[in-house]
Amino acid sequence: MSEQNHPINTYSQNELLLQAEVDALKKQLDVLEQKVFAFESILRSELSNELVEVQELTVLYKKQKLAKKEKRIAQKQRGKNYTPPTSLKPLPKATKVHVSEVDEKERKRLYREAMLYVHPDKFNMNEGQADLATEVTTKLIHIYQTGDLIALKDYHAHIFSGNTLVNIAEHSGVKVDQRSKGEFLKKEKERLEKIIDEVKGKYTYKVLTEYPEPMKFLDELKLYYKDRISKLRRRTRVG
Q1: What angle do CA 156, 47, 200 make, to 5 degrees?
Q2: Labelling 10: which of 99, 104, 150, 172 has CA 20 to 30 A away?
Q3: What is the torsional sign of CA 93, 233, 137, 144?
Q4: Domain residue spans in the chain?
Q5: How far apart are CA 124 and CA 131, in angstroms?
Q6: DSSP letters spanning 13-80
Q7: CA angle (53, 56, 60) in 5-degree steps
Q8: 111-114 contacts: CB < 8 A, separation 24 or more?
Q9: For the chain, what is the largest distance between any 2 Cα atoms, rounded to a whole number of angstroms?
Q10: Between vectors from CA 47 to CA 44 and to CA 49, what angle results, nearest 5°?
Q11: Do residues 172 and 180 touch, judged by C-beta distance below 8 A?
Q12: Is pLDDT above 90 for 234?
């Protein structure tokens, strides 16, 4: 009997060790995220105006660039001797609805919150989400310009629901056997280790751990955004 039970006992012991490692990793991750996210939140708060303007100018620049490209294509299709009319039709603008002063304040609040939420992670030099952020920002600006508060509230809610990922294995309510539970713990351990490595790979984590005065990084960012905004303003200047 004891020989038959031995593998199960051994497996249970391994499972307990894995669970302890997972619990320790969760605590480590919580501490890291609280520290890093709190720092990034301060940076975003101090740079809110710059972040919003960069997003708006980036969207405008892409629109102007696309319009120029379409104009060149149209000219080629009509021939080299094609001369554009002296009076160009203005680009269609979003139809704006009337809003009260109270609604206007609420619109601005929702707009800025959403804009800061989707801003690419410049602090960590991560450009992977830049295109997606610009796409979302383009739609956000369009809705904001229409003055439609209800549509803006809906899109604001849609944006902020983007990270509600749920671990199905934890909440499915399905009873698992010892083997599958052990495998789950192994995968959970690997997942947590990967996230911890990602957090430690953030530039803001490097600032927090290597800068004698981490808030000095804010001065670097202000210079970066000042230069970025200046260049974008020149690129989007009309006439």
Answers
A1: 85
A2: 172
A3: negative
A4: 2-78+93-165+179-233
A5: 16
A6: HHHHHHHHHHHHHHHHHHHHHHHHHHHHHHHHHHTHHHHHHHHHHHHHHHHHHHHHHHHHHHHHHH-T
A7: 135
A8: 111/140, 111/144, 111/152, 112/48, 112/52, 113/156, 114/140, 114/155, 114/156, 114/159, 114/160
A9: 96
A10: 115
A11: no
A12: yes
- At 134, the pLDDT band (50, 70, 90 cuts) reads confident
Q: What is the mean pLDDT of residues 33-50?
A: 93
Residue 238 structure tokens: 């009309």
Q: Which residue has the tokens 């704006």?
A: 96
**Could you tell me if 126 and 120 are in contact, meaning their C-beta atoms sit under 8 angstroms apart?**
yes
For tokens 């990793």, name the residue. Answer: 25
Q: How many residues does the chain have?
A: 239
